[in-house]
Amino acid sequence: MRASIDVPFRDAAAADLGWALESGAPSAPGLAHLDLAAGPFALRLHVLGASHAVELALPGGAVVTETVACGLAAGRALAGAPERLEVHGLSYGFTAHVDVPGTAAVVALADELLAALAEDPHGIVATFPGAPGAATGLRARVEPDGVAWDTWHLYPERGEVVRTRSTAAPADAPSEPDAGATAGATPLATAGAEAHR
Length: 197
Description:
Elements (H helix, E strand, L loop, with lengths): L1 E3 L12 E7 L8 E7 L2 E7 L4 E6 L5 E8 L5 E2 L6 E4 L2 E10 L3 H15 L5 E5 L7 E9 L2 E10 L4 E11 L27
Parallel strand pairs: 1-10
Antiparallel strand pairs: 2-6, 2-7, 3-4, 4-5, 5-6, 8-9, 9-13, 10-11, 11-12, 12-13
């Protein structure tokens, strides 16, 4: 799904992003969202601007929300986020990767992201007026033991791309987060990666 965002892009940097996993719905209002049923879970993918939140409703009624955004009062730096934890009987995994392929590569990746997610019923992508290459994308998928989602945060003025991958499954059937974050998912997985080998 493509979201029309009228809010101008404000320059952000990967170093400013924090991570939080909290009980309840996200406190920040989203600019756009997509609701999905994913196995035993209900998800709401939120675009918050140059950041995201994923609201996960569990079968027992509890809600947990992952947020990756700037200025999180209760958050941690991305590098300090735990790779795995348990909450409300849920085994949750998180990984984040930052690439700096340069502005031209980020603009090209934004085009790929738009092409891949604009018509995807399980994904949402938002681009920002007046800032070529500035985009935020999220995509969820059902896995055999739970659900996973990938996100992309593109900061063309800094030439940066932040990719995250999260997994959620019942605690008695945990799935390990993929160290490759987006490897094998779509051509987006490798866009810009060659510049860092």
